[in-house]
Write a structure and sequence with these properties.
- With 267 residues, the chain is an alpha/beta fold.
- The chain has a single domain, classed as Alpha-Beta Complex (2-enoyl-CoA Hydratase, Chain A, domain 1).
- The chain contains twelve helices and nine strands.
- Helix 1 runs parallel beside helix 3 and helix 3 packs antiparallel against helix 10.
- The N terminus is likely disordered.
- One of its GO terms (molecular function) is lyase activity.
- InterPro entries: ClpP/crotonase-like_dom_sf (IPR029045), Enoyl-CoA_hydra/iso (IPR001753).
- It comes from Paraburkholderia sacchari.
Length: 267
Amino acid sequence: MRGEGGRVLGKTGKPFEIAVIDGVAELTICNPPVNALNSEGWASLALAIEALGSDVDVNVIIVRAEGKGFCAGVDIKELAADSSLIQKVNAGNYATFRAVHRCPVPVIAAVHGFVLGGGIGIAGAADIVVASECATFGVPEVDRGAMGGGAHLQRLFPVQKVRYMYFTGDSINAAEAWRLGAVEKVVPISELRDTALAIARKIAKKSPAMIRIAKESLNGVEDGNLEDKYRWEQGFTLQAYMSPDSDETRKAFVEKRDASFSAAEER
């Protein structure tokens, strides 16, 4: 619905809020405690981004979050309770990252705190990333019994750095991300939203037609197909889920203990 000052407010009951003003759409993830989304949440996020991209009143989109961090990815507790939902989660992730990457207008990711799993997918699919000084980027997929995120992480960081992060589970802080060219600006968290808005407003003043053509053109000259690469990874997520080790990692995460792979082999 349309609120005061031309703002468009998102529907209630979703894990995010939406406002549009002067050509800038602001989608704010707000799903405490860690902004991890379940299968329904990812599906609704994809639809919302697609709708914003099709809105003639939107010239640029900012995706940001409230709370402890940007996004901790998927809801591991949902998958621990019902592993069959992995297909639905995969579909939601794929649709969301595609919606960001293939969005007809530029998407700015304004990230803070933890940027994990699905958070990496959003940031890696975005056109511009700005980060708070407290932001950290990581893919703990191996420690969660899953795959995915490598294609989008590789859009942010060099190949060997990506493999180090993927195999070890180690994160990269905002300063290192800036040094490696993954983020446009690193600012205090109090300035993060205003920094993203300043960039968005600069873009929004341009010719909407020219910006949309530019976005499509730049996507067309990228090396390889990001969605195809991610789809390849998702096939290995399903393979990983058939392993007892995958089940053990999720149970260990939910129970807040170290995983025991010898125990998994005995089952």
